[in-house]
Structure formats: structure tokens, C-alpha cells
Amino acid sequence: MFERGRKTKLAPLPATNFVPERDVDKQPILEAHNLGIDFGGLTALDGFNFAVSPTEIAGLIGPNGAGKTTVFSLLSKVYQPTRGAMLLNGRDTMGMSTVQVNRAGIARTFQNIRLFNNLTVEDNVKLGLHNHIKYGMLSGILRTPNYWKQEKSAAMRVKELLSIFNMEHMVGKRAGSLPYGAQRRLEIIRALATGPKVLLLDEPAAGMNPSETSELMENIVKVRDAFQIAIVLIEHDMNLVMGICEGICVLNFGKIIAKGTPGEIQNNPLVIEAYLGRQKKDG
User: Is the pLDDT of residue 140 over 60?
Assistant: First the structure.
């Protein structure tokens, strides 16, 4: 179980980045330095400085249109930045493709669920294991002993991953037939199957009821602890964000307006203004 409202001290890094104090002597697993992207003459993101430590749960929040999903698309190489750099475990990812950065250790889920609805739960998770399958096309066609060995190993791994969310009994069901919350969990499991160092969750609680959201909060912490990975999430549910995130970065109109702990962010006047608008003074 996570401790709701757990207090974490943040320590500064160069380029105005922050990580939990416990990890100040460790190399961040993910760093963005002055990251920015333009679409034509429009600047969608500018001067984005961000760091995540190896086992941190970090939040990226802001009003609709603030640039949050653009950040995820840059980190996962759906987009290439116009300027700036992104380091994964100290390695510059410049020029990497989406596949290459996934193999290097970044996996993500999407705001709109992207499962293969006509495939089984097992097959959806197996697709996430592509980084770890060691047989080639010829072995697959000829059904060699190595093929069957790898397939048996993959099936066992699928059940291990599904057991995280108590979904192993759904292994043979069609993904599209699952309840909404189960589909959300399956997408997270498929991302975990790639063996990430950093897991990017884009609005994981979207469409969930309060009970499902509470369970999701526990599961996110459970995943972090079990896999010893960093998790960065975009989320509009502030109870979830404030309940499990250690450091929070707030975007508005493509620029960072605040960084800090949940307590600091909740009381930041720039954040309050971004969400609620400028308050008129009495008189």
C-alpha cells in the first residue's frame, strides 16, 4: 500500500531540475534539457527542463492544450524535437526512432486505449515481449525446438505480468471484450512487457470510477516497487496526482510554470491561476 500524502523532499539538479532527495547522488534515468518543438510557425513546447530519478513517480499536469501529450510524444520519439536534448540513463537519444527508444527503455500508454481488440489478452501482452523474443522468422515457420522453448517462456511471462493486476484468468479472452478498466490495465501490462526503465502513462485514470482510480493508485506504486522503474504520468485526477506523485511539473501554453512537491504545487498561485483563471480583486 502507498502512503497517501507521503512527504518527499526534492533536491535541485542543474538546469532547474529536481528529483527526490533520496536520489540526488544518482544519475537521473530521464533528463530533458531545453526541449522544444515548433509546428510550422507555432511553438508547441519551449524550454522544457525535466528530470526523473530511477524509481520516482512523477506527474506532468496542466490545463487542456498545455503541451503535456506533446512532451510524451517527444520522449517516446513520435516527434523529433526542434531544439534541446533528451537523455535516457545518460545517453543522448537524438535521432532515435520510436522502436529504438523503446528498446533503450521507454514505454508508454495512450490517452485513447490502443489495444488489438480482436486478439486475445495473451497475444496483446506477447506483442509487448518483442524485445525479448530470440527466435527468427525461419524458426517460427519451421517450428524448431528453440521456437517452442521461446513460446513456452513467453506464455509463462505473460501470466506473470497479468498476475500483477490479477488478470491471469483473462488470458484467453478477446481484448475488445474486456471491461473498460481491465483494458486500461492490459495496456499498462503490455507496456511493462517491453522491459522499460521509464513508463509513461497518459491519463491512466481516464474513464474510471473512484473505486477503480483508488485501485489504480495502489497498482502504480506496486508496479514501481516491483519493477524498480520510474513512472511519469499525465493525469487530470488531482487526487491521484497528489496522492502518489513525488515531484510534479506543471505546464501551461507549452512552458513550465511550476515544479515541486504536491504540497508546493497545490499552493502555487501560478498553478491556481492556470487552472482557475486570474481572480478579480475585491473593490
Answer: no
